[in-house]
Write a structure and sequence with these properties.
Length: about 250
Amino acid sequence: MKMYSVIYVLFKIIGKQVRTKLSQAFNHWLNVPEDKLQIIIEVTEMLHNASLLIDDIEDNSKLRRGFPVAHSIYGIPYVINCANFVYFLGLQKVLTLDHPDAVKVFTSQLLELHKGQGLDIYWRDTYTCPTEEEYKAMALQKTGGLFGLAVGLMQLFSNYKNDLKPLLNTLGLFFQIRDDYANLHSKEYSENKSFCEDLTEGKFSFPTIHAIWSRPESTQVQNILRQRTENVDIKKYCVHYLGVTTVLLS
């Protein structure tokens, strides 16, 4: 099937397998049978990579890991269909785990992921700056959703029943805020994605939210975000302003 070959190529480009390594690390505690663990890892990576294909469309991204985004090559309709196909392929694999609660965990965490992504898009498109606490809650849904999926499925096959949600929440926040910081401050990120892509997208990331609420009398950051600018000088000025206004980018 041609779709399989395209998906394989796309996933080979965009995948970093962070969630695979995370699942393997958690398995030191959980001791999940290897056959079950492998299915869970495959499902988590599939869903993560499929969500990135959709994210790039929703964010109007140009690059992913230094390569043109998939929809710029294959077209938006085809990439959406591929991503949706992978979501259901993941569900099919979850059924092979043969556990009565596996589908419940799967659907619950995917709903959380989409709720979080929906909030992120809503704030961006309505120019609504959330509070830091609102942003953190969104990040726990958006980024923590797949962490919760992997560990939630693993615990179905483990005797370790301690509540790992606090640790997963901390990891989810760390990954999201680190990603926000790297988007504005990392040379490697600029080369792989584009320079300060979040500013061009008009996204309320953690550094911009922190700056806005630190100096509510100033509207400079909001004005720049509204422009959806690709002007490098304006974006450099915004990063400088964030560094002066807060300690986050110093």
